[in-house]
């Protein structure tokens, strides 16, 4: 069966071996984050909707999970904000009812938790991983460039409400951009918000691949450790870079292995952007990013930003 809404399993930095479910079109999001490795948001909105027939999503899940694959998580993620999908709650309930042995995670920017319907639909999930990078609107807008109608404290208040209703795990991500949200007043504000939300973990994350804006730089391990110390809270950890392995066990099907080989051969011959690779292979861009990560386990991939975008290539 050809999967259009599932991808992976991939080796996630935070969730281990994870089967992805993508319920929104590419780059449909409530934010247009400066650090997004998928590129600029093309459809920015806070309006929820059913973007794909749910029967197709459930059919793909039945087909793939019929083989009882070994997974650490089934994760709602992809290349946009998953809570924009009005189908997410029904898909979560289907998985919990039909495949209760699998843990469910939701990677979200947290922008819609002010909505009671969104909070209610996510209650059966095992782990929610929202993002909070600043409590100050100026910094929040600089980093996330949100759709109109979203504010920093709205995010905090929504997550605080969710914590009171939710019995699962909350792993709060703070995306660190040196010089932007690392000043003492920023960290003081984040500490106060963390104390209100009471997450089970706080994960300091930083740039792993080129983002939408080339001025965004990654924080060093030393900087992340400094921030962890200044926050002065238990349960704060830095996200370690993932170590990918190219093996038969790391792929969804033989087709995925073939896709990895095709992309690898393409960037060995010439530098390509994500759009170039997609046009040559008919693969979605979200899957290409995961394939590039797998290739990087065994080969050096270099990246160069040009006017047309980021070019990926394997040097001789």
Please provide a brief summary of the model:
Helix content is 35%, strand content 17%. With 316 residues, the protein is an alpha/beta fold.
Task: Supply the key terms.
single chain, 8-stranded mixed beta sheet, 35% helix, 12 strands, alpha/beta, 10 helices, 316 residues, globular, Arc Repressor Mutant, subunit A, TIM Barrel
Describe the model.
The chain is α/β, with parallel strands linked by helices. It folds into 2 domains: 233 residues, TIM Barrel, CATH 3.20.20.70; 66 residues, Winged helix-like DNA-binding domain superfamily/Winged helix DNA-binding domain (Arc Repressor Mutant, subunit A, Orthogonal Bundle), CATH 1.10.10.10. 35% of the residues lie in helices and 17% in strands. The chain is built from 10 helices and 12 strands. An 8-stranded mixed β-sheet has the order 1-2-5-6-7-8-9-10. A two-stranded parallel ribbon has the order 3-4. It has a two-stranded antiparallel ribbon with strand order 11-12. Strand 9, helix 7 and strand 10 form a beta-alpha-beta unit. The two termini are 36 Å apart.
């Amino acid at each position: 069966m050809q999967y259009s809404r599932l991808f992976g399993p991939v080796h996630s930095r935070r969730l281990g071996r994870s089967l992805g479910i993508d319920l929104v079109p590419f780059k449909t999001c409530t934010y247009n984050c400066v650090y997004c490795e998928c590129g600029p948001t093309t459809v920015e909105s806070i309006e929820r909707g059913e973007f794909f027939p749910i029967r197709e999503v459930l059919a793909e899940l039945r087909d793939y999970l019929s083989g009882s694959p070994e997974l650490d998580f089934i994760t709602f993620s992809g290349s946009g904000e998953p809570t924009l999908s009005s189908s997410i709650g029904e898909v979560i309930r289907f998985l919990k009812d039909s495949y209760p042995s699998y843990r469910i995670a939701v990677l979200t920017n947290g922008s819609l938790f002010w909505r009671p319907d969104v909070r209610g639909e996510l209650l059966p999930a095992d782990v929610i991983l929202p993002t909070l990078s600043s409590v100050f609107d100026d910094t929040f807008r600089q980093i996330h460039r949100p759709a109109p109608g979203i504010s920093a404290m709205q995010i905090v208040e929504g997550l605080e409400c969710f914590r009171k209703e939710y019995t699962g795990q909350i792993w709060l991500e703070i995306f660190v951009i040196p010089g932007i949200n690392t000043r003492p007043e920023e960290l003081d504000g984040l500490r106060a918000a963390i104390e209100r939300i009471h997450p089970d973990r706080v994960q300091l994350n930083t740039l792993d691949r080129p983002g939408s804006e080339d001025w965004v730089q990654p924080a060093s391990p030393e900087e992340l450790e400094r921030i962890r110390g200044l926050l002065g809270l238990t349960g704060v950890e830095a996200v370690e870079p993932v170590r990918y392995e190219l093996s038969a066990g790391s792929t969804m099907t033989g087709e995925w292995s073939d896709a990895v080989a095709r992309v690898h051969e393409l960037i060995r011959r010439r530098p390509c952007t994500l759009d170039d690779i997609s046009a040559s292979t008919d693969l979605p861009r979200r899957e290409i990013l995961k394939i590039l990560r797998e290739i990087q386990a065994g080969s050096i991939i270099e990246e160069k930003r040009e006017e047309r975008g980021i070019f990926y290539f394997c040097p001789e």
